[in-house]
Amino acid sequence: MVIRVALVNDDEVVVRGLDAMLRSYSNRVEVVELVAGKPVSQPVDVALYDTFGMGQGNGDSVRRLVDDPQVRRVAVYTWNFQPWLTRETLDSGVRGYLSKSLPASRLVDALAAISAGQVVVSPSRGRSALVGGDWPGREEGLTAREAEVISLITMGLTNQEIADRTLLSLNSIKSYIRSAYRKIEVDSRSKAVLWGLAHGMRADRVRITGSPAREG
Questions:
Q1: What is the DSSP string of 5-27?
Q2: For 160-187, b where at least 16 C-beta lie within 10 A, e where not — what string?
Q3: Rounded to two decimals, what is the model's pTM?
Q4: Whole-angstrom Cα distance, residue 29 to residue 196?
Q5: pLDDT digit string (tens) for the chain, length 216 residues
Q6: Which pairing describes strands 120-121 and 71-78: parallel, antiparallel, or unpaired?
Q7: Which residues lie closer than 8 Å to 171 by C-beta, 6 or more apart?
Q8: In 10 A of CB 201, how many CB atoms?
Q9: DSSP labels for 42-111?
Q10: Residue 8 · residue 36 · CB < 8 Å
């Protein structure tokens, strides 16, 4: 049976990258929506929530998906595997807590198991790189983590707000900012915001149903 999946994230590059990652498995998975900031508009077996630039799995956005009558199951696609966060996310009704280090084939296997009613938690891979999908700034050399930080800066979040949203330490955020600034050749927050806007780092809202400044 083909699983109907909605991909949930505010960034068009992220959801389209995930869509491309799953396309080779069209005999098992049908991506029916790319959802950003809106309710899922049609019944799906699994909503896959990508945490890039979003809240984590224990946040209000995920709880709304769990309560959405159009969504049978919810899975969170993440690299944050603190035990307490995993536990809180699953306690909210999420059926899958999936690592971004999973190869596409294993991600599809996990989605199938979740659709069948199983609870699936990927083993944490520590600091393993994201395997598939895409993110803004990838072609410019940014890692997924660096891109997420620049994306959140572009949204206007402070370093502390970014740390709170990503569940990283403030020192880690500052380190990602320094390395990202070197790669994109900027030396201030305002220039980073301009770079982000020029490279598509906004909350683009897309659907394919029926078609395809305060810190330095």
A1: EEEE-S-HHHHHHHHHHHGGGTT
A2: ebbbebbbbeeeebeebbeebbeebebe
A3: 0.76
A4: 32
A5: 899 999 998 887 788 888 988 989 999 999 998 876 677 889 999 999 998 888 788 888 899 999 999 999 999 998 888 888 899 999 999 999 999 888 899 999 999 999 999 999 987 655 555 555 667 777 778 888 898 899 889 888 899 999 988 888 999 999 999 999 999 999 999 999 989 888 877 643 333 333 333 455
A6: unpaired
A7: none
A8: 25
A9: S-EEEEEEE-TTS--TTSHHHHHHHH-TTEEEEEEEES---HHHHHHHHHTT--EEEETTS-HHHHHHHH
A10: yes
Q: Encoding tokens for residue 87?
A: 């536990």
User: Residue type at 3?
Assistant: I
